[in-house]
Predict the structure.
Amino acid sequence: MHADPHIGLLHRGTEKLAESKPYNQSIGYMDRLDYVSMMCNEHAYVMAIEKLLGIEPPIRAQYIRVLFDEMTRVLNHLMWLGAHGLDIGAMTVFLYCFREREDLMDCYEAVSGARLHATYYRPGGVYRDLPNSMPQYQKSKWHSEAEVKKLNQSREGSLLDFIEDFCQRFPKCVDEYETLLTDNRIWKQRTVGIGVVSPERALQLGFTGPMLRGSGVEWDLRRKQPYEVYDRLDFDIPVGKEGDCYDRYLVRVEEMRQSNKIMQQCIDWLRVNPGPVIIDNVKVAPPSRADMKDDMEALIHHFKLFTEGYCVPEGEVYSAVEHPKGEFGIYMVSDGANKPYRVKIRAPGFPHLAAMNEMAKGHLLADVVAIIGTMDIVFGEIDR
Amino acid sequence: MESLKQKLQQHFADQLVECELNRGELTLHIEAEQIIPVCKALRDEFTFTQLIDLCGVDYSAYGNSGWETKQATEHGFSRAREAFSQIDDVDEGFRYAVVYHLLSVQNNNRVRLKVDLIAETPIIDSVTSIWHSADWYEREAFDLFGILFKGHQDLRRILTDYGFVGHPFRKDFPLIGNVEMLYDPEQKRVIYQPVSIEPRTLVPRVIRDDNRYLQSAGKAKK
């Protein structure tokens, strides 16, 4: 038997499109690659530009990025857990996962105005600081006064308060998912011993992220090649043993707990360390609105940035982040223009799906569903 | 990185065209004929067990800017100028490059491998026998750039449509494409026809000689 995935049905030519517009205008395209872990995609892209320009974002921006990267990881793993569960016959967990996703997407909305496609990271920092208030529910036909009051309980304070409240609730939620699945006989029958990949083969097949760690290779860019402030944070890297679907499930569930821990540390730091969130360099980041009102130079800089963009020095870089699905990399070539010369997106799902044939060999057709689920496939990034 | 660079330079003394360390990233330039022995040695002797990425690059429009900026102060710009500068000499000399990104999980380092290919027949040996993950990456580079990989078992298109004509990521392939697809109610089927939308550039491509970057300006092209 032979499995030959046909991909490309979602190919939009993101890389070619990026070559045709100024650097900043492609940040929004990055959200649409892996559309369940939006900010992590943006992160690799802006990091590549920063590396070419030789700039570094302020420390507060780095913490905000880490906070939102980890929030994105939780969002991604919740989506994965729900969908994977649904695929192989566990309905309830899907509903539970989406309940928590809702809160996190509200955080996305509070900070960027969009629930999914945030375009929040910018070269040199993030678009704006965390807001001091959360949007609240209004009384309506469907929600009575009392209900609204209960819903708004955690939304009285700032965004950080809301996230902290979430972080305290979340470990309990993960316990809930685990009671549904971890010792569930049917779940184990569907996943244990399915799609086994040895560590040698995982490397050979180009696996990264949970797919590689599930096979027992301790490799995490956040720890091994730390970017932003990951080297200051305390977290563990879960590693699997057998390299089957069940181990990868356990790895991802533990990653959610670890992400929660990182988020908590970021919140504690962000509370006591105010400061700028974007670089003070008007050649890259726009000046403040207030400056523009009475400073001619600031107005010119703003105009130049939003019409022509900025020119990036000639050269080539590869920047990678530990994306929820694996290593997400951007290889960027610049010839000195205001648009990239070539952008190559290294999507983690691409080599994972390429291994479909090998992983499915000798299994039943029904196991293919479990294997696709365990790969955490999102076609937005594979087809680009 | 510096020590790895020296080690690699020593080991590949005969094969290396150039070896540069730029922005903390190591790039090896080699000739197309050497790809198999160099990759084998990198995997077996330098523990680069993972091929993280493989991609093509088309250098034919490198350094072209849609807008001559130097004369700006003398003449001023014309807003409505033709946006695309013509690409000349696409069929001569080196045009394409294949770029390999390798990762060593054991030693925690990365290296980039670059091979220039000629415009007429861009062909290079496949590395699928060395890293299995090269399979789809090479198909992608073939699909998008028309680079041929000798020894690849199954070099089919991967991302573009069934029956697609051309290699869309080449610089002389228009962004807007060549054909468009629509439903024809008379024939009661989906048909292809020449594209009817006019290409339009909102922001021209500009290269400015920014003196802040003059020192760091590398020679990326080679």
Observations:
- The radius of gyration of chain B is 21 Å.
- Residues 1-61+92-161 of chain B form a domain with the Beta Polymerase; domain 2 fold (CATH 3.30.460.80).
- The CA atoms of residues 70 and 209 of chain B lie 9 Å apart.
